[in-house]
Write a structure and sequence with these properties.
About 0% of the residues lie in helices and about 50% in strands. By secondary structure, it is mainly β.
């Protein structure tokens, strides 16, 4: 059974940093497209960053230069390091896993497995 468990969310002031972690069980992160998404109430889920099996990464324009996605194959985790946080980064953040084609874009459509999410709140 596949499980993705996010951690590391919380409250931070604008300009601060947070590191989200996604611990995977039942799958090997290096064999999947792994991604981070976020959602605020009333809006569609937004792709933040993905990393494919070759290590190629994609980022949403809104987070480029501020967020970094990286996977630790030894720990079977995928982290999202978030720097220079802005109030508009406030959202529920989700970790997801999908097969190869999922990483062709930041769309959530091809991601098969999802975590429960971790809340990030950035105050101004």
């Amino acid at each position: 059974q596949v499980q993705l468990v996010e951690s590391g969310g919380g409250s931070v002031q604008a300009g601060g940093s947070l590191r989200l972690s996604c611990a995977a069980s039942g799958l090997t992160v290096s064999r999947y497209c792994m991604g981070w998404f976020r959602q605020v109430p009333g809006k569609e889920r937004e792709g933040v960053a993905v990393v494919d099996v070759g290590g190629i990464k994609k980022y949403a324009d809104s987070v480029k230069g501020r967020f970094t996605i990286f996977q630790d194959n030894a720990k079977n985790t995928v982290d999202l390091l978030m720097n220079s946080l802005k109030p508009e980064d406030t959202a529920m953040y989700f970790c997801a896993a999908g097969w190869g084609a999922a990483c062709s874009s930041l769309s959530s459509i091809r991601f098969a497995y999802w975590g429960q999410g971790t809340q990030v709140f950035v105050s101004s």
